[in-house]
Design a protein that fits this description.
Four copies of one chain form a homotetramer. Chain A is an alpha/beta fold. Helix content of chain A is 48%, strand content 9%. The first copy, chain A, contains 15 helices and eleven strands. In chain A, the strands form three sheets. In chain A, strands 4-5-7-9-10-11 form a six-stranded parallel beta sheet. In chain A, strands 1-2-3 form a three-stranded parallel beta sheet, covered by helices on one side. In chain A, strands 6-8 form a two-stranded antiparallel sheet. In chain A, strand 2, helix 4 and strand 3 form a beta-alpha-beta unit. The radius of gyration of chain A is 22 Å and the shape is globular. The first copy, chain A, starts with a helix and ends in a 12-residue tail after the last helix. Chains in contact: A-B, A-C, A-D, B-C, B-D, C-D. Chains A and B meet through helix 6, helix 7, helix 8, helix 9 and helix 11 of A and helix 6, helix 7, helix 8, helix 9 and helix 11 of B. Chains A, B, C, D: It holds the Pfam family AP_endonuc_2. Chains A, B, C, D: InterPro entries: L-rhamnose_isomerase, L_rhamnose_iso, Xyl_isomerase-like_sf, Xyl_isomerase-like_TIM-brl.
């Protein structure tokens, strides 16, 4: 793992400046009636799960260009996740993907404990065929026209629950690529009926203290219709299944221009918001690093979450879900965790009393200015202090680079093969 | 009204060709196992409501360019609507907009009867301020922060119901422009709460045999958030109100790329599809003539409606909702009614048994080809025969032009003023 | 005008805090090798033109809700523009729109001088019909099928040049709404040919020291095709006209997801970027206040402008072009000018040497982080100091409200009528 | 290859019906002043190239699900392409992709001759790394920051030209995935400069009778910026290179809502339209079968091509470019070729004199109706007759299935492996 003396040396070089910045920010916030210590405490309480698969280099259907030292096993992935949490103190849990991460649960628990991590929601995979698989998902899984294929997909999800129980997870996220590429290829209504039937079978196998998350996506890998295409269909699904079913919002899974923060507010009102997959995007499901393309959008999502944080029963599962194609995945996950945490802290310093007053008076200009004032506050000193106090790095990317981790693991992990994605 | 001898003369000139075309099509359909007479009967059973306001020239925020003979009153509008139905036999009802069409109900009933029309859903208007209005809707109506403004908007809707009862309508369509232009301007959650409270007050005043339609729209006139922004929110509204509340789908009110036919299928499954506002569009809520920009999309919507036409309790209110900026509005409404009817008939000749078989076998190519085969069948002879048999015009636009209607009314109606839309 | 003692009193109350903030920021920037004084000087050199029409409340095709004290004449508008510049020191010029602002040039010059303003680009209007106009623009203007209508539109543009010469303007911006609403309505190719012919006739009348700006827009008011639909067509136009012709980029005039900063870079390379219309948007040409919806996008545009600011011959005309529907227009213009200036200053503190280094090494993560570090720097102290030193207000909205300007002019200007936009 | 007796038997079973349909359509067209024989001759003159790689099953970044009998070599691919042409008589040429199709040119020529095909444009590949490649394209190819990498990419393109010369090709299509995933990752301007330099080096190696096609794409595989992002940049490229450089339009490579037929018209006016990559899409670059999602859009593109077919120097290279994920690729290519041909014939029966008249009079309704009348004409009898007369199949998919081709090659070709696309 990362040598703590490196983190400490890196921090030592930055601490005086940080103190000055923290004090100046504290004074400025105090003038606005805000206690910087309370904000730092909120920052320290923040955590977002890291996806095990995010530690490998991702790709597109055109190509994948792996770097050196790619993780070759779930053990390697957990090592990398441990590095991220050691440096950020913001990613205490890992989310597994089955069958990619299938392993002896006891070993998983042991390894996670070793690197200081817990397990978040389990993720099933019925959008790819595995070598040993009886029936193909080429034409769908939970919504397939063939009952035996649906049953196979249901059983895979039940197995994910079993593995999850053994390692201390408490939720299952279901995302399927089922849909169609051509008008007419499937019956839009009957395909949804079949999907609901399969989901009910999975729901029936859900332990009492578990939740199941339904994740919507407008398109890809299906290009004409997708069974769970939007939050409306996801809501219908969660309503039909029962109280343990909730909706998961992936920021990149919407039509162009859609106001995602409204969806957040609506799902909270419906009592059905379960959590998030964080990432950023400009065009489609680009799976870019969180907060790198539209940081204000990320802030606006958090603004809803903070405004409604006392909604009855709200218990959100936050996860990063990104594809790291041109960066060191560890660095992208570090940056993303920090950017998500940043938006949370920025949203936490909105002057909600003033905002509510401006809203009540329809003073649109000042209401909007109140939000923007929070967004443009540079809360880096808060985030840095939170990390410092938690024993992590003031500048986690610098510390990571200083640690030489990537070169170290590149020396002992096999070189991954690139390849052509979905194109021959 | 239109002189029947003109229609008859126009029809006489086309009848021989029509007979030949009808016979040729009949033979071709027979080979596919389809009875042309049954399809013609379906075409004759079709009806779509015309919006009273659609008979005037519309405009954009930049300008409005009225033509000659614009209707100056609801009486004029009903005359124009009567012309459309006389020529198409496809638009038996008119949908009124209050306060634009406010008049003595007895006179409305009498005039409608005179021109051979009934009344469809009532439409309320809380997106504009009227001269005599106590409170402004600048910052919202049913969701306004001010209780008195909400009450005013509720009462306006109750008045629409009263007028509707007096003229034989059985439904109220509620569309509001409420929302916000800037992040922070309103609380997305509290604004929706206020909207639901207002809608419940209207619902409480709904007669037992009435329905209330909730209409969603992604944006415009509000440009950052809209209270009922999508079908998910519309569904939540209808669910919260009760069994008499349903969702209305306007084809132009969605984000780019959204698969509207899926929404249709979902709302039918939820038992909450109430009806449609038909139009076409390329960019936003363009309100173009139905079937002129993406005719295949219109067909795919109808394909769902025909596939699911036996869904329990399905009772749809179909209306045209367009803005006619560069055409004679009567002509645009004629063309639109025919195009909607065309899509209905095309969807009716889909070989559903073959389609279901291809879908069951995942023969995507043949399933898609089956739909396309129906779409590309030129059903003009069926539509023309349906009109001929109903006493309408084989070529309704030609007959309309031959009738000289527009010149006639231009001589007796005042010239409308143009103007600059929302721009000074 | 605004009483200077009010500005001074408002500034006095904020000056101590500003000094502290400015010093803290200066120290922090110095650590990054940046001189806060140089940045303040850049801020003070910044200017963006205000559109005369922006001082009135705008609207949509659904409605317009004017406030109190709307300007009733170009004199009133210039007064309002003078207020904005007095408070921000960032809007030294006004852009006129003919015929809305037609008046005796000598009086225009005199009034502008009185309120401390100059004149920016002239704007012609051939998207509305004026009462005294011979031919209608319902079916187009510079690209109309009728030669006499095209001639009328050309002559109107030539008249705009004449007025502009008399008041010291040096540029003409041409934006037309010409296009079509239906496939087939116009010949896409011949309509463009006619447009180019008309533009050449205008170009022939352009003084040697003038420029003509071609402004593209994807849609609205035309909904199927628009003659100058994108920057490619605008570039072809500018290339065909000659060296005095350049392209103007309105931030809201693009298809969803389009990368506007790339267009900026391309047009600069082609030697054809003439200037900007600033605003913000979420869905279409929403004309919202600059920097309120996607502030990072505004920053990225400025990042290109700063990176390429030494491109040969680059001489940009910056203007705000917004519709203020729910705010006091003066306040929206103040906020917008400040947000545009903010993005300029943020882009000015990008560490370009470091950025170029990361780019050269394909260190995508650090390159992106370098841009974000500039963006999230809160440069308010710089902007406030720039205003203070220029005799304007540290907090211009607060000073404006303290001045009571709106109430004062509401008492002497007539109440504007609202209305229904493009809808009857 | 396909046994001709099967085609003949299949045709024999359909010939009587076809004769009846052809005669009925001929009579109907004659009434509209159209000669069906001339249209059939046009259909017979039509040809579109097939991409060699299109004969294999494609995939997404999530997965690829190959079918049986996938082509394992360029010989297999040419066999499959030969089958398509034998059945449709509409795909006389194949477009190769290097290095996927690299082989001895003499053998390529011989094999192509054997299956009755010629060679269309060559396609280079610098968006994937090949096993033996010196430098990686992870961070770009022709626009890479590293000169040696750019040189390698240039040389690969020059090699494609060499291979093309040896097999009788006359054009090179250049599409690169270069761009960036994050704001700041690259200098948008310098990256384009480097691209242009590389393209000039390729252009310098272009034989006199060759053309080079620049293909734009808004995004993917790069997700923030793409060097040749739209037709404007493609046009600048072609202008800078010289007369042998032209622009290639792939129908799926545009932002949502973009009017592609306008781009076609503009590029023709600029003398820079080189050809097309045909496919269809609903969301992004979905690469679906041509004419299956928005058939009217395909028609409108062809409407421009037919309207402007006499433009000086117009010489278009038509190719299909699709990914066949859920169908037999041969069947998808058959259907696509037929749909493209269909749109061409439909566009050919537009009454252009009537259309021009309506356009001149601004009779928007009748102009639009004129286009739609052509589109909804079912020209199947023309296409079927064209195939019959050329010795191909009236119903090519039925004949293909009857031939048992897929089962036959599945028995002799190795089973392809599926896989996980760009995702681990």
């Amino acid at each position: 793992m990362i040598d703590r003396t490196i983190i400490e040396a890196e921090n030592a070089a930055r601490q005086a400046d940080l103190t000055a910045d923290y004090d100046a920010l504290g004074a400025r916030l105090a003038r606005r009636g805000l206690d910087i210590e309370a904000l730092t405490a909120r920052a320290m309480s923040f955590g977002v799960a890291v996806p095990s698969w995010g530690t490998g280099t991702g790709g597109t259907r055109f190509a994948r260009f792996p770097g050196g030292g790619e993780p070759a096993s779930i053990t390697d992935k957990l090592d990398d996740c441990g590095v991220i949490h050691a440096l950020t103190a913001a990613t205490p849990r890992v989310s597994l993907h089955i069958p990619w991460d299938k392993a002896d649960p006891a070993l998983l628990r042991e390894k996670a404990e070793e690197v200081g991590l817990g397990f978040d929601a389990m993720n099933s995979n019925t959008f790819q065929d595995q070598p040993d698989q009886g029936r193909s998902y080429k034409y769908g899984s939970l919504s397939h026209t063939d009952a035996a294929t649906r049953r196979q997909a249901v059983e895979h999800n039940l197995e994910c629950i079993e593995i999850g129980r053994a390692i201390g997870s408490r939720a299952l996220t279901v995302w399927i690529g089922d849909g169609s590429n051509f008008p007419g290829q499937t019956s839009l209504s009957r395909q949804f009926d079949r999907y609901l039937d399969s989901m009910k079978a999975i729901y029936a196998g859900l332990p009492d203290d578990w939740r199941i998350f339904s994740e919507h996506k407008i398109y890809e890998p299906a290009f004409y219709s997708t069974v769970v295409q939007d939050w409306g269909t996801s809501l219908m699904t969660a309503q039909e299944l029962g109280p343990k079913a909730q909706c998961l919002v992936d920021l990149g899974h919407h039509a162009p221009n859609v106001n995602i923060e409204m969806i957040v507010a609506r799902l909270i009102r419906a009592g059905k918001l379960g959590g998030f997959h964080f990432n950023d995007s400009k065009y489609g499901d680009d799976d870019l690093d969180s907060g790198t393309v539209e940081p204000f959008r990320l802030f606006l999502v958090w603004n809803e979450l903070v405004e409604l944080e006392d909604a009855p029963g709200l218990d959100l599962a936050h996860m990063i879900d990104q594809s790291h194609n041109v960066t060191d995945p560890i660095e992208s996950l570090i940056v993303s965790a920090v950017e998500i945490q940043r938006a949370y802290v920025q949203a936490s310093l909105v002057d909600r009393a003033a905002l509510a007053g401006f809203q009540a008076e329809n003073d649109a200009l000042m209401a909007a200015a109140t939000l923007r004032a929070a967004f443009r506050t540079d809360v880096d000193p808060i985030l840095q202090t939170a990390r410092l106090r938690a024993g992590a790095a003031i500048d986690p990317v610098a510390a990571y680079r200083a640690s030489g981790w990537r070169a170290r693991v590149a020396a002992r992990r096999p070189q991954a093969a690139g390849g052509g994605g979905g194109i021959v």
